[in-house]
Design a protein that fits this description.
By secondary structure, the chain is α+β, with helices and mostly antiparallel strands. The protein is built from 2 helices and 7 strands, in the order αβαββββββ.
């Protein structure tokens, strides 16, 4: 007979499934490129285990960082644990390695899709929309780091509708 005090960890299972979705999307992009108007805002914990980035980026973004995968990127490679990519920061190409477990938000505003991952301290109730949109690239910037709000969260996706 099963133990009635234990429960199914739906939040953890959902996180695993959604990280698998991100892995599949990025794998497709690595093979075929970004289709149509698709582009991604990915916020991640810069202090998480397995994150690799230049010291100057870690100094500038000690807690979290948002990258934009859109116009210029190179060397996108995806494996079971995460992805690596080269992005341009002010004409300075930098290699980043981001484990899937370090991702806090993943947004594709072209199709009004977004995910937010709660940390283990936040409990199992994940994926509730919040009122603040994710950071957008500044004028004249494309695939560079943006300074996110203190707590990057996904979004009322209607803020990405065309014509607003």
């Amino acid at each position: 007979m099963s133990d009635r005090t234990s429960s199914i960890a739906y939040g953890r299972l959902m996180h695993r499934a959604m990280r698998g979705l991100i892995q599949n999307v990025l794998s497709d992009v690595a093979q075929s490129g970004l289709p149509g108007d698709h582009h991604f805002f990915i916020t991640f914990d810069t202090g998480a285990a397995g994150v690799a980035l230049a010291d100057w980026l870690r100094d500038r973004y000690p807690e979290e960082m948002t990258i934009v995968i859109q116009n210029w990127y190179d060397g996108l490679a995806v494996d079971d644990d995460g992805f690596s990519i080269i992005l341009n920061f002010g004409d300075n190409p930098e290699h980043l390695r981001i484990p899937f477990d370090a991702i806090r938000t993943f947004v594709d505003p072209s199709v009004e899709f977004g995910l937010r991952f709660e940390s283990a301290d936040d409990g199992d109730d994940a994926h509730e929309p919040e009122d603040e949109p994710p950071p957008r690239p500044g004028k004249g910037q494309t695939d560079a780091a943006q300074t996110p709000s203190q707590h990057a969260e996904v979004v009322r996706l209607d803020s990405f509708r065309k014509g607003q």
